[in-house]
């Protein structure tokens, strides 16, 4: 049984952060890895491709022909938000996350939903405003390497299906090919930045099937994956352990709300 801290805010208010994109099925796999191992990985092609490397005692740095170092987009210790596709939630009349069909709340304290202000009914993730961000990750490692230097443990950290009969690296090469085209495909073996990261907020999935959203100071709504909801008028309505969700129960720590 895990305990999840439920705080007042889920975003870095007033702080501009970079975003990173994942395909929905890839992000779902990353969440599984994060829940199981605490850290996950993603690889991004280095552009332009380095002509050579500058080596030090503890690292190697990709360089352009003139010797200028190619800097990774994300640095160790940096907080990055996950850019998700949004859709016009016709039932609510506001914005929802396409990933799991749940509403977008931009202020958990008073329960404001994000107003839909776009002409089309689907907004690609790359255009998601930061106010809609609900997942934040912290970069814990950056390394430049050839794509095919990936190890089996790395491939698992990338989120490949560990139940597949195919080896993890083979599964990763197939996944890579669905996203990256020549000359950056698997056969091209491009240089990539390997980013290792961890999740730094407790919002989103809770124990796989439960999603908790604090709507107003006097009301707490727990969204279950199947579409049902549990509503608590105040914290005291929870049982003594703060447990919700029946057989999928989790412990919730509300100390951050005091």
CATH architecture of the domain at 12-81 and 135-199: Roll
Q: Helix segment count?
A: 3
How do the strands line up in the largest sheet? Answer: 2-6-12-13-3
> Residue share in helices?
10-25%
Which structural class fits the helix and strand makeup?
mainly beta
The run of helices and strands is: EEHEEEEEEEEEEHHEEEEEEE
Q: On the 0-100 scale, what is the average pLDDT?
A: 77
CATH fold node name of the domain at 12-81 and 135-199: Sulfate adenylyltransferase
Number of strands: 19
- Sheet-strand content, in percent, reads 25-35%
CATH class of the domain at 12-81 and 135-199: Alpha Beta
Question: What is the 3D form?
Answer: globular
Radius of gyration: 21 Å
Largest sheet: 5 strands, mixed
Described by its quaternary structure, the protein is single chain
Can you walk me through this structure?
By secondary structure, this protein is mainly beta. It has a domain at 12-81 and 135-199: Sulfate adenylyltransferase, CATH 3.10.400. The protein is built from 3 helices and 19 strands. It has helices at residues 24-37, 152-157, 168-179; strands at residues 3-5, 19-21, 40-45, 52-55, 60-63, 79-83, 86-89, 94-97, 105-107, 112-113, 122-123, 136-146, 191-199, 205-206, 210-216, 219-224, 229-232, 243-244, 250-253. A 5-stranded mixed sheet has the order 2-6-12-13-3. It has a 4-stranded antiparallel sheet with strand order 14-15-16-17, with no helix packed on it. It has a 3-stranded mixed sheet with strand order 1-19-18, with no helix packed on it. A hairpin with a 2-residue loop joins strand 15 and strand 16 (219-224). The longest helix has 14 residues, at 24-37. It starts with a strand and ends in a 5-residue tail after the last strand.
